[in-house]
Amino acid sequence: MTFPFGPMDGDDQRQHSSASQTWRSGTGNRVAQLRYMALLWLSGCALLALVTWVCFKIGFNEVATECVYLIIIVLLSLLDSFLTSVFLSLVAIACLDFFFIKPIFSLDMQLKEDLPGLVSFLISSLVITALVRHVRRIVRVRHEQAELLDLTFDTVIVRDMNGVIKYWNRGAEELYGWKRGDATGKVIHSFLHTRFPMALSEITDTLVRTGRWEGELVHTKRDGIEVVVSSRWALQRNHSGQPKATLETGNDISARKRAEEMLRQSHATYLAEAQKLSRTGSFGWNVSSGEVSWSEETLRIFGYDAGVHPTVELLFERMHPDDAARVRQAIDLAASTGQDFDLEHRLMMPDGTVSHLRVVAHATTDEAARLQFVGAIMDVTEAKQAEQKLHETQSELARVTRLTTLGELSASIAHEIGQPLAAIVTNGEACVRWLDHPAPQPDEVRACVTQMIAEGRRASEIVHHIRSLAKKNVRQKIPLQLNDVINDVVSLTQHEVLSHHVLLCLKLARGLPPLLGDRVQLQQVVLNLVMNGIQAMDGISDRPRALRIESHEDSEANVVVAVQDSGAGISPEHADLLFDAFFSTKPNGMGMGLSICRSIIEAHEGRMEASNNIQHGATFQCILPAITAGGT
Ligand code: ADP
């Protein structure tokens, strides 16, 4: 790089005297060029003749005349090419020899010592004219380059390594309001009150190391107004490689910066407003650096004041103690596998209030290919409370419905069976009376007993009738996939699983054969087993509450669903009673669940089994015949 104040390489082909430029660029005509040269040469000869005559008359010696010739040759050579210098130098030598070197008026030379003098004159003349032309060329090129630098709208400033301004273009004059004369010689950074984006020493290090630096600087103009300048610095070194100067080009980006800032502010305002409305905060977490960033709304959700420096530990400080281990486990897993995560947990604020959050995070990598998560945190407390309320209402409704149904059922059974029982009792009493009679009446007794048998049969028929009514209630069976039934139940029980902090594990076999069944009834069965499993783990706190639902096909063409929990298991004394109606060990249990399950499964020609696991908990299985190629 060559700066306009430094040495530069001339381009001989491009450089001409102003006169030659006139004819070259004016006509480009060879004839005009020759005419100009002939005129110049003639004028030169005439001038030399005149000078010779004057010097001869005055009586100048050879050396004085040589000096005058030199001046004329140098001046004339400025008007044209090197050839003119050579021609005029030769003419001057001829004149010197003829008029000033003995014998006079002859081109002969009396003393051989005069020859070196003439040769030195020729060489000096040629060298001086060449040098003068070269210097003129340099000055002109520099001037042209400086003019070019003034054409640009950018600021171009050159300063030495002490920051002293050496060059200041028109762009700089216009931007900063200082004229070239005002700025040159000043120390740039104090002159413009420069504010740097980083330490100046760091910038200088980069400049010296790489030869370049670019960044945004804030300068103060002559009128005191600050401007943001996009500045590019380039280092010039001297021949020994030492830093010599810095070329600083820049352009005013204040307007763009203001527009960007306004845009950013309005974006930030909209985003903050939208986050506030949707109660959704955002966060970023760089796993390797541990750096965390969060939005205002996240800050609000976690109940921290604005300006608090975000860290992962701060987030955990507000975590509900019962959820902390689970969340940490999920986050550690995501950090080690680089997988997205989606989890729900609670926060416990210092005043004891509990809120529910849903956290969804997406794994990405930063510019250095380091793992980071970008995510959203939704405050779902209201939704949770509404869901909880709905759930409670549903449970209450179900309980009331069950009680009502049971009440009605009991009333109707009591009514239906009450009559024959009353008749049996009445007939029994009559029977006793007849037997106590002083003269027993066997016929009467027989009649009563016959009546009692008839009433007993009637009661039995009523029971049979109720059972057959229940059987008739079996809905239409269709071919269905056991896994679909299980998946239905899984989505129905999500709330229970989460609220009871149960780890649900599904292991469903692929390609199971279909079975013939009533989807709703089978859902009821699986639902009941899942709910029993969840309830059986309620008191467990020393181990994970793990519920595993598995499906497979056994060797006898049955499809099997097994629900395994890690609860307390089945006490041996209860093992035979589990499926009995009204058997329950729960304070509010009705004891109808497993009995209904068994009825449904048996109505599907299947069977139910229950057993304790080797370590903890119990497993309940439903074994149902699959539809085989040749029928069920
Ligand atoms: P309820 O749930 O109303 O008690 P169920 O018929 O569904 O009625 O269950 C009967 C009983 O079987 C329960 O009270 C409980 O003692 C026992 N039981 C059911 N499932 C499990 C299980 N997964 N682990 C241990 N015991 C169970």
Question: Could you characterize what this model shows?
Answer:
The radius of gyration is 55 Å and the shape is rod-shaped. It has 19 helices and 17 strands. Helices cover 51% and strands 19% of the residues. A hairpin with a 5-residue loop joins strand 6 and strand 7. It has four domains: 33-146, no CATH class; 153-252, Beta-Lactamase; 259-379, 2-Layer Sandwich (Beta-Lactamase), CATH 3.30.450.20; 393-625, 2-Layer Sandwich (Heat Shock Protein 90), CATH 3.30.565.10. The strands form four sheets. It has a five-stranded antiparallel sheet, with helices on both faces. It has helices at residues 18-26, 30-58, 62-77, 82-99, 114-151, 170-176, 180-183, 188-191, 200-210, 254-278, 296-301, 312-317, 321-337, 381-436, 442-472, 482-492, 494-499, 519-536, 593-603, and strands at residues 155-160, 165-168, 212-220, 226-237, 243-252, 280-286, 292-294, 341-348, 354-365, 371-379, 478-480, 503-508, 515-517, 546-553, 558-564, 607-612, 618-625. Mean pLDDT is 84; it is low at 1-25. The protein has 632 residues and is of the alpha+beta class. It binds adenosine-5'-diphosphate (ADP). Residues 528, 532-533, 536, 565, 567, 569-570, 574, 578, 583-586, 589-595, 618 line the site of adenosine-5'-diphosphate.
